[in-house]
Design brief:
CATH topology of the largest domain: N-terminal domain of MutM-like DNA repair proteins
Radius of gyration: 20 Å
Helix content: 10-25%
CATH architecture of the largest domain: Alpha-Beta Barrel
Number of domains: 2
Strand content: 15-25%
CATH superfamily of the largest domain: MutM-like, N-terminal
Order of helices and strands: HEEEEEEEEHHHHHEE
CATH class of the largest domain: Alpha Beta
Number of helices: 6
């Protein structure tokens, strides 16, 4: 499930493959931009912003993509077989003489002026893995609505950018709270910000995440040994330790 750590890794792979090189192949397979042609332009950089990816090319253009639940970018050699999914799932192809980047199942793909990037990412709070990270601002954003549950506040990208369902569960575990506690009732809310930063930093370079509770329903808690509980909320699985984490539960 793509979250801040996965998006950062994806953007870094795309940057390594494309930045500073002339595009010799461009294919945007979405109706609105199907006729757009980026060939002959140099890719300037690929930058992550929260869970968004901004691929900037010369001429003042940015290709904006978002992975959401199951989108992915894959990078291949010029003669390598594409293995990211069936052809009808491909939404974008960007290639140069050495590498080809293929975007699969991208729910958001749009070409815009680089000067207009704020129209798609300007609403985001501080990026946990970005240069704009500001823990004080993130904490103020989280506490702006004290009645909101911790889980809801963490998922709101306007508060802080980069947390999805996986790290919502993990952050709540480290902060020793259930996701359903009103955030205004949390004794030490700064622990949420500290935990979120710690988790994403620890996983930013890992190919496989180390998880405390997510995906471990029924298995013993790594801290106390109590079986991890699981429920479903808005079609998303939620995991927590009923002993380590204090607060209301469903």
């Amino acid at each position: 499930m793509p979250e801040g750590d996965t998006v950062l890794q994806t953007a870094q792979r795309l940057h390594t493959a494309l930045a500073g090189r002339l595009l010799t192949r461009s294919d945007l397979r979405v109706p609105r931009f199907a006729t757009a042609d980026l060939t002959g332009r140099t890719v300037l950089d690929v930058t992550p912003r929260g869970k968004h990816i901004l691929t900037r090319v010369e001429g003042g253009l940015t290709l904006h993509s978002h992975l959401r639940m199951d989108g992915a970018w894959r990078v291949y050699g010029p003669d390598e077989r594409w293995r990211g999914g069936p052809g009808h799932q491909i939404r974008a192809v960007l290639g140069n003489a050495e590498r080809v980047a293929v975007g699969y199942r991208l729910p958001v793909l749009e070409l815009l002026q680089t000067a207009d990037e704020e129209s798609v990412v300007g609403h985001l709070g501080p990026d946990i893995l970005g240069p704009d990270w500001d823990p004080d601002t993130a904490l103020r954003n989280l506490l702006a609505d004290p009645a909101r549950t911790v889980g809801e506040a963490l998922l709101d990208q306007r508060n802080l950018a980069g947390i999805g369902n996986v790290f919502r569960c993990e952050t709540c575990f480290l902060a020793r709270t259930t996701p359903w506690l009103p955030i205004g009732d949390l004794p030490a809310p700064q622990q949420l910000v500290t935990a979120a930063k710690k988790l994403l930093e620890a996983n930013r370079a890992r190919s496989r995440r180390h998880l405390y509770v997510y995906g471990r329903g029924g298995l013993p808690c790594r801290r106390c040994g109590t079986p991890i509980s699981k429920t479903t909320e808005d079609d998303r699985p939620v995991y927590w330790c009923p002993r380590c984490q204090l607060g209301p539960v469903p």
